[in-house]
Amino acid sequence: MSLVSEIDYGTPASRSESTVTLTIDGQQITVPEGTSVMRASREAGIMVPKLCATDMIDAFGSCRLCLVEIEGRAGTPASCTTPVAPGMVVHTQTGRLKDIRRGVMELYISDHPLDCLTCAANGDCELQDMAGAVGLRDVRYGYDGDNHVTARNNGEINLKWMPKDESNPYFTYDPSKCIVCSRCVNACEEVQGTFALTIEGRGFGSRVSAGMHENFIDSECVSCGACVQACPTATLTEKSVISIGQPEHSVVTTCAYCGVGCSFKAEMRGEELVRMVPWKDGQANRGHSCVKGRFAYGYSTHKDRILNPMVREKITDPWREVTWEEAFAHVASEFKRLQYQYGRDSVGGITSSRCTNEETFLVQKLVRAGFGNNNVDTCARVCHSPTGYGLGQAFGTSAGTQNFDSVEQSDVVVIIGANPTDGHPVFASRLKKRLRQGAKLIVIDPRRIDLVRTPHVEASYHLPLKPGTNVAMLTALAHVIVTEGLFDEKFIRERCDWSEFEDWAAFVAEPQHSPEETEKFTGVPADLVRGAARLYAKGGNGAIYYGLGVTEHSQGSTTVMAIANLAMATGNIGRPGVGVNPLRGQNNVQGSCDMGSFPHELTGYRHISDDATRDIFEKLWGVKLDKEPGLRIPNMLDAAVDGTFKGLYIQGEDILQSDPDTKHVAAGLAAMECVVVHDLFLNETANYAHVFLPGSTFLEKDGTFTNAERRINRVRKVMSPRNGYADWEVTQKMAQAMGLAWNYMHPAEIMDEIAATTPTFALVSYNYLEKMGSVQWPCNEKTPLGSPIMHVDGFVRGKGKFIRTEYVATDERTGPRFPLLLTTGRILSQYNVGAQTRRTENVVWHDEDRLEIHPHDAEQRGIRDGDWIKLASRSGDTTLRALITDRVAPGVVYTTFHHPDTQANVITTDYSDWATNCPEYKVTAVQVSPSNGPSQWQIDYDEQSRQSRRIAGKMEAAE
């Protein structure tokens, strides 16, 4: 394999449908109107020298290296900023141009260290390449004055090297090598949208600066890597390249963090990963990245990673390393024993939203075909199961309606219960770019997320509602749309059931649903609600994006249906720029749901009770399937406490840290007789495990992930599994030990089985994905190219369904003992339970969970910023440090859940969504008070955790 090559056309592509024909160096070429002469030349196979131009950003025209001659025009215009014209005749190589370019390069080189042989960018330096391209062989300008390289002192010339900035853990800034091309500055502005970089100084004294003389770590830089990727020299260089050297081959794969599903080139030296570079042809990320996907892959080689299977009789025993064969035999023996002793339904499995579609498919197959029951569930139970139910009821399918490109055509964007800049940062960058172009933004969130107000983006409306009142808020918006006649009657009559609309419209028009009345629940002024409703209904293409702040409520499913009602009522479905779009949390939450991970559904969201659907699988698998739905995760834990559920196989999830009411989860796990954890590290759930099966990272396997836009992306193995097996192989060998005749040789065969049994995946295969790059389901005979936009000509269910959404206050109430409301969320640098990101340098930015509290609430309790505080609810208590901020309203506190020593979920309750059991993480009544140290629960938990991680042999060696 070689490095995957990508052509840099110098300037972005024109989207014009009109074309222009011109002649470049004697070649006639036809390109879209608005194309630059530079890009047209490159499309004709002619490379014009360049330094400041790259097709990720708009043309800047500062380097003066790309000059051309155009017949009939005076001078030598820059090809990057000159658009093509009909009949234009361009010359890119003349004697005059060669002389000018060599002169320009001489000036660059006179102000640049000539340490190429020892430079980290040697072999991957555009300055070096361009010097060769223009034929530069000598520099006439000596080092006889002040510049980046030299300094004059009493007539004596001395070499000087401006100090490097090593503050960022992932890349180095070497100002002596800066050619002031401004590519990094423009990438930070246009691609990332952070505006953290600038050019300071003048002439030879000018250079890139991270803010006002700050180093990178203290600046507004979010370490997305756009500047590093844009830099044509070694000014900004990955520290991994400096230490390892230039890569010699690369493989395109998919990031295993959030649901955006970014494509990357894993650039390698042998089996050592040098760097992850965002792939420009990635249709989800379009060549951009965030700090996690770009840099936070070090967990794959972390010393904490477990590489050998382990077993123990009791959870109080030390772990004992065994062979894979022993581990598989032990699991098979135990699960068979449990089913013989306690019944067929006494065991189950949990699939992973971090693993591939193929691996997830095998786990649910193992449960249904091997265990003989439907006791299978997935982490989507605790995050997006209301999305599946709510959108399924309204539209007929359990997924978002748009691709990410769609946001570029949005005029009004509603963000509700989501924080894209932290949770889905690459999508957020695209959103911010559209907002800077003039789109309007409405934010519905108890907390002032970054998108509400930044120096370059500001929401038209922020509706800071009280946690738990989403349904009241959305119904109030609908009230305005209906009573003011802002609905799209033509769309509704054509695409929905008019009588159902009339019933819903009468419901939302009732006086108690007016913004003035609902203000009593939501706390949001009525005039803001009315203004936001009018903007969404009449502002053009309206798109709604939502996250866990919608689904993780007792009325999560109702809220999703309320969002669908708004979209249908305004006709914002079925075309680019509109839609209802859940922002999925983990990399394969969508895929794990698609693959039949819920106890009541087989792949493609078909109910287990449907005889025809079961018949497809029974014939292929050669078994009789149970037609009764199995247990959900909360039911499994309840049954374990009751003594009827005894064995659980958990692939790639940490339910002790991620699920609500930690004490109840611990009690359920402790009551089981065989808990099998299949993961990379001894996570918190492994404290209660009897078998540990080491997992493999996304770098060590082949497969597919499905992102939040239903995009099926290939995951490609770039190195051998350090534990010996990819995760799909582990599940297969466990199934074989239990007597199942599985014999998959490659994940491609598993995908073929998925396609053969799942109508929405009918044409999906590895060969097809290689050809297409990626596809969005449904991908079948009806839609062979996939479905970027859903519900274009009609809803999957036929007519869109309007559903009444009555607001029912949560049973979790504040009172004298617990007067504050706790809500939770994520932060940019960390991911989910933190098992991966906490084992990288990302801890530099977030090494602990903090409790955000309003200054008024803090003052009342005598709490100062940074103080240790006790956070208590009806379920339990923990301690962490306070962060005093007005980002939260009085009466509301907020924290993240990335660190197990905090265990925020010991606070959350067992209240859940009425339809799906999705936990109500976002509304917990709490009290905050000063603390002198960790809670007794934390002390006990830490000791139990320490004892649980003992490994025989290694324990003795340590002693």
Automatic annotation (TrEMBL):
Its EC number is 1.17.1.9. InterPro entries: 2Fe-2S_ferredoxin-like_sf, 2Fe-2S_ferredoxin-type, 4Fe4S_Fe-S-bd, 4Fe4S_Fe_S_CS, Asp_de-COase-like_dom_sf, Formate_Dh-H_N, Formate_DH_asu, MoPterin_dinucl-bd_dom. Residues 929-938 have a biased composition (Polar residues). CDD domains: fer2, MopB_CT_Fdh-Nap-like, MopB_Formate-Dh-H. PROSITE patterns: 2FE2S_FER_2, 4FE4S_FER_1, 4FE4S_FER_2, 4FE4S_HC3, 4FE4S_MOW_BIS_MGD, MOLYBDOPTERIN_PROK_3. SMART domains: Molybdop_Fe4S4, NADH-G_4Fe-4S_3. Residues 169-200, 213-241 form the 4Fe-4S ferredoxin-type domain. Pfam families: Fer2_4, Fer4_7, Molybdop_Fe4S4, Molybdopterin, Molydop_binding, NADH-G_4Fe-4S_3. Residues 96-135 form the 4Fe-4S His(Cys)3-ligated-type domain. Residues 929-959 are annotated as: Disordered. It is an enzyme of class 1 (oxidoreductase). Residues 248-304 form the 4Fe-4S Mo/W bis-MGD-type domain. One of its GO terms (molecular function) is formate dehydrogenase (NAD+) activity. Keywords: 2Fe-2S, 4Fe-4S, Iron, Iron-sulfur, Metal-binding, Oxidoreductase, Repeat. SUPFAM superfamilies: 2Fe-2S ferredoxin-like (SSF54292), 4Fe-4S ferredoxins (SSF54862), ADC-like (SSF50692), Formate dehydrogenase/DMSO reductase, domains 1-3 (SSF53706). Residues 18-96 form the 2Fe-2S ferredoxin-type domain. Coiled coil: none annotated. In the C-terminal section; belongs to the prokaryotic molybdopterin-containing oxidoreductase family. Belongs to the complex I 75 kDa subunit family. PANTHER family: FORMATE DEHYDROGENASE H, RESPIRATORY NITRATE REDUCTASE. This is Formate dehydrogenase subunit alpha. The gene is fdhF.
